[in-house]
Amino acid sequence: MVGGVFIAPYVFGTAVATTLAVELVDSNRVAAQAGMLTAVLVAIVVVGVLSMIRVPTSLTLSLVGAIAGFGWAFGENVQWWIVLKVLGMMAIAPMFGGLGAALFTRVIAPLLRSRDAGRFLKGFHALAFAFMSLSYGANDAQKMLAVFAVATGVTAGAVPAIGWQVALCSALFGVGSFVGVGRMSRTLGTGVLLSRPLDVVSAEISTAAAMLVSTSAASSVGLGQALSGSLIGSGLAQGLRRVRWREVSRIVMAWAATLPASLALSATAGWLVSRA
Hints:
Elements: H1 2-12, H2 15-23, E1 25-26, H3 29-52, H4 59-74, E2 77-78, H5 80-108, H6 117-138, H7 142-151, H8 163-192, H9 197-216, H10 223-236, H11 245-274
Antiparallel strand pairs: 1-2
């Protein structure tokens, strides 16, 4: 997945990073840097607290809410229609991924009754994972590029794909994956439903497609959000009982709590900073 994070900005551009760094809030350099720093800290706190109780949420959702909250309280020009567009895509992506995974599972499942089914899924998983990695680099990973862009003074125009920044983002993602992705995979892979190889492949393909659709709209969406929706869709295609609805409800409640919590904490910080 690290390779996808590095390659994708050069293939798909940096429109998602531009949305986060420049278009959500129209700020001068000082306000933009203070706002992004606050948003990152708030997002880490909110996601960290939820992670402690083993409820996966979206760092991207938290970051968007925190950027908007700080800008509003600080008196900056928040582009609310862009904020709503991004939040709308975040809501649509899990549903799109779920529908795609359900259709994929329905089509592929009848073909997996031969002795070569395991070999087929193993090979297809490698391709699907590579596709998902590339889509992640084109979308969710660009929040890191947005942070670097604001830190280096980009407050207008498109965020450039600067080599060292892309490489550093890739390296940081690799470290983060080593530390945290295993926990998220266990939660999603055994929480939402007990995943089988077909579920994994279906979810990877559908998640990648959902993220690329969001990328075409220059809108960021969390990998965990799209992947959760895709796994639910794959499970539903094989029966309602395959999905662990109690865990699904916990995840949805975490998403619902993430946005107002991040917005409120960041707005409080913005209000305090503006009066300092």
